Amino acid sequence: MASAPGPERDLRLLAGCLPLYPPPPPTVGLLSMEQQETYLELYLDQCAAQDDLTPPRSPLFNPVVPYGMYILNASNPDTAFNSNPEVKETSGDFSSVDLSFLPDEVTQENKDQPVISSRHETEENSESQSPQSRLPSPSEQDIGLGLNSSSLSNSHSQLHPGDTDSVQPSPEKPNSDSLSLAPITPMTPMTPVSECCGIVPQLQNIVSTVNLACKLDLKKIALHAKNAEYNPKRFAAVIMRIREPRTTALIFSSGKMVCTGAKSEEQSRLAARKYARVVQKLGFPARFLDFKIQNMVGSCDVRFPIRLEGLVLTHQQFSSYEPELFPGLIYRMVKPRIVLLIFVSGKVVLTGAKERSEIYEAFENIYPILKGFKKA
Amino acid sequence: MPGRGRCPDCGSTELVEDSHYSQSQLVCSDCGCVVTEGVLTTTFSDEGNLREVTYSRSTGENEQISRSQQRGLRRVRDLCRVLQLPPTFEDTAVAYYQQAYRHSGIRAARLQKKEVLVGCCVLITCRQHNWPLTMGAICTLLYADLDVFSSIYMQIVKLLGLDVPSLCLAELVKTYCSSFKLFQASPSVPAKYVEDKEKMLSRTLQLVELANETWLVTGRHPLPVITAATFLAWQSLQPADRLSCSLARFCKLANVDLPYPASSRLQELLAVLLRMAEQLAWLRVLRLDKRSVVKHIGDLLQHRHSLVRLAFRDGTAEVETRGKEPPAWGQGQREGEVGNNSLGLPQGKRPASPALLLPPCMLKPPKPICPAPPVSTVTGDENISDSEIEQYLRTPQEVRDFQRAQAARQAATSVPNPP
Predict the structure, then answer these.
(1) I need a labelling partner for B415 at 20 to 30 A (CA). Which of A122, B160, B180, B398 fits?
(2) For position B286, what pLDDT does the model report?
(3) 3-class DSSP state for residue B312?
(4) What's the N-to-C CA distance of chain B in angstroms?
(5) Does B231 touch chain A (CB under 8 A)?
(6) B6 torsion bin: left (phi>0), alpha (psi -120 to 50), beta (else)
(7) Would residue B411 be called left, alpha or beta, if left means φ above 0 and alpha means ψ between -120 and 50 degrees?
(8) What's the pLDDT score for residue A128?
């Protein structure tokens, strides 16, 4: 009966943003038409405000909605919109929803999928059944769920919170499929779809920082660790290196650490954890807080020579080409905010990214521009 | 002002607060009678309540030009005069310097940086008027490091949001060539080395254009290319006497510094000319080499456009399929068998198949590419075994040894210093 702390906390947060919902009456008809209309209007107003941005976002009031709640939540606008056919279109496609805010457990848990699909199946089979055992009481329910169920005056079963799922007409089925699929697959593709060419920039270096959250005695670390060097007169940090993944770390006495040299985000994280473990083994209460990728560097080869003088003429506001200083052209792309070094041999270096997708996107943007300069 | 009292003389209420030489007074606007006066000086007790305000927090900075800014503006004007720039350039450069000075980062910068900033402003002005001033020249004049100059230059261009056009190559050729002291006989320059300025200029220009077309200029410092082109032009105008003169000696004669990359640019230019010579039937039979081709530079330049078209094929499309072809297009090599030949003449008599028109960095044999790292399946959350971490830690015995060694080293380094 007691629900997990998660849903409760989320419900309280939901309660904060939604008008307080009175407990649903046990039978239909207790709520007058006007009351139902009011709740419908209230809900739709909120949806309309968010419709300007991304319509599918409307049901996602609380970013920390656990998976189960999300599904129930997401199904609600469909049921709500059933009564308002003209508003239905806005809720239709959920595949474009940006779900990156969902916590990792939610996006990775595949096992929820069969649970949900089986739930849908049982609902399809038993229209009028109200599996109240699943959803015990309205107070523990998703309030939006209850809100929508009250707005529907059609059937008796809809007022039972558990049955809101059951009212899923077939047009919603494709949506539910996409719903159940959508949280699993990340929205931004990890492998770049390069429709222009088969060239994929390779990541060469990742710089990340992490907070070990304890004061460190650098002299002690340099003494007890084989792979550390410490020269306070030159630099106020210990330089530590590990072999696998081949990386270098700068460890400061404040407990902050910078990890460089990894070739992928996961490797950078693993390496940072290994350094933290080394520091732990040396007797410090090191933790692993605020790991963040600060910079990513990628490189690739377009395999044709580029007339840099021409490029700087046509893209003057972004490019800087000074052959007296540097042989390459420095292109500062605005969206995404990446700096590209373009050389006459066709080699391109992309840097300044916080995400892998930014590097791929920047290359997608620059390739057609470079192709324009292919003919000498 | 109402409510302030009445003028004792005329009784009007129109009293105005005014200041007379920084002394505030309450004056009747009708009769001009001074009703009350403020104090001109402060008393000691009043001054005790005053607080010091640093110059940077007062408005003094905005009201007058600071001494260091004045110095900088003077330096800008001096530099323009030394370079003998037209007078309009001076005003533009001064305006840029003042504009830069409005930014707090520049105001608080070191003197060295402000000095270099003078050069940057002059350089930007020259670039915008297509005046061929190189960064090397400015750095020499200012005794500045090129690295320092480059960082401040990039910073100021970004800060002021300026559009700085590229260095004008044609103008640079004219200015640079004119600086060669070869147009008059002198004790150091024998008569056979003296050359007509116009002829040399025009030939150098043509050679530089040829270099530009064949990817020898993009991405490189422009000056060494011009040095090499000037040398070749000079040699080709009187090859019989001048072939014996080397590039280094030539620069010494002409009283010009020899830039280091000039010799490799010279080789590249000669290779291009040799390729072009292969396309001329009467030159092919001569089997020219790097030295003999100089004699025919005049002819080659005369037909350079068509020769380049014949001698080189577009390298851009070829590179993408290059993986399958052997790297046969070495400098000066003839690989008649490989590749297509549009003329269809029997082998041996036909001209060399067109070489790839690519920058020299792409013509070099490709470096053995280190195999792409295998796609790692690292998730970042793996377990880290203790043994792996232990390998990075010293055992207690090692720690003791290390400490002993450190102490010994300390003792050794401190012994030479007597107390």
Answers:
(1) B398
(2) 87
(3) strand
(4) 82
(5) no
(6) beta
(7) alpha
(8) 45
Band of residue A112 on the pLDDT scale cut at 50, 70, 90:
very low
Best mutation target among B268, B314, B378, B402 (most A Cβ atoms within 10 Å) is: B378
Report the alpha-carbon distance of residue B222 to residue B169 in Å, rounded.
8
pTM metric for this prediction: 0.66
- Per the model's pLDDT, the better-predicted residue between B380 and B195 turns out to be B195
CATH topology for the A208-293 domain: TATA-Binding Protein (3.30.310)
Phi, psi of B341 (to 5 degrees): -130, 120
CA end-to-end span of chain A: 74
Integer Cα distance of A157 and A27 in angstroms:
9
Tokens of B195: 């050359």
Q: What is the identity of the amino acid at B64?
A: Q
CA–CA dist B410, A304 (Å, integer): 58
* Under 8 Å between Cβ of A369 and A360: no
In the sheet that holds A329-333, the strands lie side by side as A228-230, A237-242, A247-252, A256-262, A202-211, A289-301, A347-353, A338-342, A329-333, A319-321
User: Is there a contact between A225 and B316 if contact means CB atoms under 8 Å apart?
Assistant: no
Q: How far is it, in rounded angstroms, from Cα A235 to Cα A237?
A: 6
Task: Please report residues of B whose CB lies closer than 8 A to that of A223.
Answer: 394, 399, 402-403
**In this structure, what token pair is assigned to residue B408?**
């010994």
Q: Among B213, B218, B380, whose Cβ lies nearest the Cβ of A308? A: B218
Alpha-carbon torsion (A5, A9, A10, A12), positive or negative: positive
Task: Give the CA diameter of chain A.
Answer: 83
Q: How many CA atoms lie within 13 A of B412 on its CB side?
A: 6
Looking at B215-354, list the stretches that DSSP marks H as alpha helix, in order from N- to C-terminal side.
222-237, 239-242, 247-254, 262-277, 281-284, 297-302, 304-311, 315-319
Neighbours of A127 (CB within 10 A): 12
Whether a cis peptide bond, with omega within 30° of 0, leads into A136 is no
Range A258-268 burial, b when 16+ CB lie within 10 A, else e: bbbbbbbbbbb
Residue showing tokens 């830039």: B259
Tens-place pLDDT, residues A238-270: 999 999 889 999 999 999 999 999 999 999 999
At the topology level, CATH places domain A302-375 in TATA-Binding Protein (3.30.310)
**pLDDT tens for each residue of B162-189:** 989 999 999 999 999 999 988 888 888 8
Name, in order, each residue with C-beta under 8 angstroms of B60's C-beta and a sequence gap of 6 or more. none
| Pairing, β A289-301 against β B15-20 | unpaired
pLDDT band (50, 70, 90) for residue A59: very low
Structure tokens at A275: 């350094």
Give the span between the Cα atoms of B128 and B95, in whole angstroms.
14
Range(s) within chain A of domains with CATH label 3.30.310.10: 208-293, 302-375
Q: Is the dihedral of CA A244, A245, A249, A253 positive or negative?
A: negative
Among B216, B218, B394, B399, which would you mutate to test the A interface (most chain A Cβ atoms within 10 Å of its Cβ)? B218
Alpha-carbon separation of residue B373 from A202, A262, A263, A274, B380 (angstroms): 10, 12, 9, 21, 17
B 297-336 residues with CB below 8 A of A?
A: 314-317, 319-320, 322
> Which candidate from B222, B315, B390 shows the least CB-CB separation from A305?
B315
Q: Which residues contact A358 (CB under 8 A, 6 or more apart)?
A: A296, A336, A337, A338
pLDDT at B38: 72
pLDDT of residue B377: 78
pLDDT tens column, B51-98: 778 877 777 766 778 889 999 999 999 999 999 999 999 999 999 999
The per-residue b/e assignment along A25-47, b for 16 or more CB within 10 angstroms, e otherwise, is eeebeebeeeebeebbeebbebb
